[in-house]
Structure formats: C-alpha cells, structure tokens
C-alpha cells in the first residue's frame, strides 16, 4: 500500500492565545507553494464549513506530508493549540494529542495540562491533492481516583486493526524493588483502568522511561529505547490480560536514556508483513571505521521470543557507494534515524543537513533524497519522535492516483507509484525536489 512520511507536529489554527501561528502557516504555504494567500486561508480555516483537518498537498517519501488542524478540531476553539501532536497512525484513523493554549500538544513531560485526545477519521480527498478528516474528541477520563489522567503521551498506543478502536496508556511506577503498572483503556465509548503485575526486572533502581508505542495485530508494545518493551494483547479476556517483558537485543541495553536516543534508535512495525522491527545506529567500536546500522525482527518460537538480525551494515559501505557521492552530502557525518519504510524493511530513511534520503541498507545504496524544512516548528531532529509513517487508506490512495499494488523491488530504482501522478485538479506538486539516485539494475 502507498504510504507517506507524516510530520507528527500538526499546524494549529491562529487564535488570540496562539501567538505566532499566523507566521507558521505563512511559512508552510510558502514552503509548499500552495498558491494561496496565507491570511485568507487562516480566515477560511475559522469558518464553520472548513474540515477539521486538511493536509498540505500529499507527497510521497522522501518528502514529508504536513497536516493542519481547523478550529473544529480543537477542544477549545477560542484557545487553539499551536502545536498538536500525532501520537499514532493507522489506515483507519490517526490519534492526536491537543492542549488548550498556552499549553502545547507537543509536550513530552509527565502529567501534561489541559489536554485532550482526538481521533482523526473519515478521510477524503480534496482539490489540490489533499486529504481531509473529521475530528472525534474523546471524552474526559473522569475522576482521577477512578481513571487517572494522561501520564505521558509517549505511553499511549492505538489498536485500530478492527472495531472498536482501542486506545491504551500504560502507566509504569517503581515501588521499592519492583514495578507496578496501570492500564488505562478507551473502548466502546468509555474509559476504564486495570492494575496489573509488571514483569520489569529490577535494574539497579532505574526507572521506566516511555518513548512510544506500536501495534502488532491486537498487541500493543510500549517501549523504553534504552531498556526494552512491555506488550499486552488487548483482545484477551480480562482474566487473561497480562504484560510481557521483551529486553532489547543482547548487549544493547543502556544505563539510561540519552538526549539523542530518538535519533539513534527506533521501534516500528512493517505493515506488509506485520512484523515488529528494532533499528539502531551503533557507534563505531574500537578498530571500526564507522558506525553501523542494524535491524532486528522480534520472532516467537517454541522456546520463546528472540531477536533475529536482518542486516548489519557499516556506514562506511554506504558512504563509499556512488549513489551517496551523488547526494553531495559529507562523508563521516552520521545522520539521524528518521523513518523505516513500512512496505520494504530494507529501506531506512535518514536525515542530514535538512535533507531526508532513503537508503537500501543491505545494498548500501541511496535511492532518493529530498529537502526537509520543518516549517511548523523550531529546528528539531528528523527522528521518529517528530516523523511517522502513515499507510494511506486504500480508497484515498486510489483517489489520489496511487496504485495500491505498487511495490519497491530491491535491486531496482525505487518506484512506489505507477503512472507518476502527484496532483489532481490542475494543482501541481513539484517533483523536481526529489533526486532519484539509484540506477536501474
């Protein structure tokens, strides 16, 4: 299925308490050549008939698709959030975190204030090669004594492979020499809580630090990128609901999270085979010329879970390839880990010097590259914290002109769409920004 790299930070709508949002929208329009007057668009966004959400013109990787929120998407339209945040994606819905100004949805601190979770549903195409969606604001959780409020947005996951959609936050606390866990779920229109036994081992008093969550079938895996994962099958009966602990691959646990951990490690799910993958950029060891990028897949067999190594490649091999030389990017500079292709696990996207480029890692080859300018936020690493893959709904992809059966064949130049069609209704999305670097096999 066709997919896009989606910016997690949503463009908010300007309001009396959202100082600077107009400038952000102006920059966004200029950067994407929307051929429209930004102040007029801001006025239109406030109109009642505007959609709750609208993308900028949809673009395929390595370019980044940006999402904007209309007033109807905000919990308080008079105090709109400048920077809402996309927590999770699926083909059926997106999960976003909104705050009431002056708070931001893009807050990774514990116990965020004045916040609300919002589901984006009912995707449709719109003129200009755009996608619109409606907002479904989830109800408050109720009295904290019954259902605790949001602890951290990086502890929230989404299961949307079937109905009803399930949203689950795992709140992990240390209690002396052991851990406790509280599972907070939204299902069937209401919130509930369940206190659970936590299988985390005691590691010298270290805390659990949430970095995100992914969904595999009906399982949610919450992860601490310095330690491991906790998983739960949310389709289990109440009596069979329990947590599993999955350590990182041997030798890859850290004493604690580092400031750049999102740019060096990430956990994702490849949608074509529904496999859980862990990718890491490992610093060069003694005697090695360059860092290494490695991918593992989590497998289960009769004797339990284990990590299978898919590939491990030195950046020196990538830098030595002619395709990398054609990018004009410097050798010896380690890029940020951005996104793993959900369709072809050999393709990993990296960011360097305001560019995003896709690499067929086992073949050491750069496939394509495009500029990346995060115009709706201050300069931030193009990591999994701020970018996420989104597999487009089939009917939306087809309406945009993307062939749902198109695929990338390793060994050939990347071709994710058939009949290159990047725009409809006469609005053209510039393709010249994308540099194709691989040669046909």
UniProtKB/TrEMBL annotation:
Domain DUF1618 residues, every copy:
222-346
- What is the protein's name according to its record? DUF1618 domain-containing protein
Tell me which Pfam families the record gives: DUF1618
- At the top level, the lineage of the source is Eukaryota
Q: Which organism is it from?
A: Paspalum notatum var. saurae
Matching InterPro entries, A to Z? DUF1618 (IPR011676)
Spell out the PANTHER family in the cross-references: DUF1618 DOMAIN-CONTAINING PROTEIN, OS05G0468200 PROTEIN-RELATED
């Amino acid at each position: 299925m066709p997919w896009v790299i989606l910016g997690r930070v949503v463009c908010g709508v300007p309001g009396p308490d959202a100082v600077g949002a107009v400038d952000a929208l102006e920059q966004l329009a200029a950067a994407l050549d929307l051929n429209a007057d930004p102040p007029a668009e801001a006025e239109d966004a406030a109109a009642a008939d505007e959609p709750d959400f609208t993308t900028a013109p949809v673009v395929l990787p390595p370019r980044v698709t940006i999402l904007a929120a209309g007033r109807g998407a905000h919990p308080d339209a008079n105090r709109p959030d400048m920077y809402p945040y996309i927590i999770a994606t699926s083909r059926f819905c997106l999960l976003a975190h909104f705050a009431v100004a002056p708070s931001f949805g893009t807050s990774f601190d514990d116990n965020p204030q004045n916040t609300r979770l919002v589901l984006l549903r009912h995707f449709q195409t719109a003129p200009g090669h755009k996608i619109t969606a409606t907002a479904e604001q989830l109800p408050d959780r109720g009295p904290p004594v019954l259902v605790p409020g949001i602890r951290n947005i990086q502890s929230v996951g989404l299961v949307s492979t079937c109905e009803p959609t399930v949203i689950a936050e795992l709140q992990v606390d240390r209690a002396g020499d052991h851990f406790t866990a509280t599972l907070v779920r939204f299902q069937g229109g209401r919130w509930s809580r369940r206190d659970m036994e936590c299988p985390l081992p005691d590691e010298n008093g270290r805390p659990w630090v949430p970095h995100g969550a992914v969904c595999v079938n009906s399982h949610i895996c919450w992860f601490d990128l310095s330690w491991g994962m906790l998983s739960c099958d949310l389709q289990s009966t109440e009596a069979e609901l329990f947590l599993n602990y999955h350590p990182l691959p041997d030798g890859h646990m850290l004493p604690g999270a580092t400031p750049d951990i999102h740019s060096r490690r990430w956990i994702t799910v490849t949608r074509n085979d529904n496999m859980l993958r862990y990718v890491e950029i490992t610093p060069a060891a003694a005697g090695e010329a360059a860092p290494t990028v490695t991918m593992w897949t989590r497998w289960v067999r009769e004797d339990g879970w284990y990590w299978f190594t898919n590939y491990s490649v030195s950046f020196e091999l990538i830098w030595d390839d002619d395709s990398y030389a054609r990018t004009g990017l410097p050798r010896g500079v380690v890029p940020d880990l951005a996104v793993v292709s959900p369709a072809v696990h050999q393709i990993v996207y990296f960011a360097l010097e305001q560019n995003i480029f896709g690499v067929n890692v086992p073949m050491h080859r750069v496939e394509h590259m495009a500029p990346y300018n995060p115009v709706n936020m201050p300069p931030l690493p193009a990591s999994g914290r701020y970018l996420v893959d989104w597999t487009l709904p089939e009917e939306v992809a087809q309406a945009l002109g993307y062939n749902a059966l198109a695929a990338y064949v390793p060994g050939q130049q990347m071709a994710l769409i058939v009949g290159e069609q990047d725009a409809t209704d006469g609005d053209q999305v510039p393709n010249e920004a994308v540099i194709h670097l691989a040669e046909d096999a």
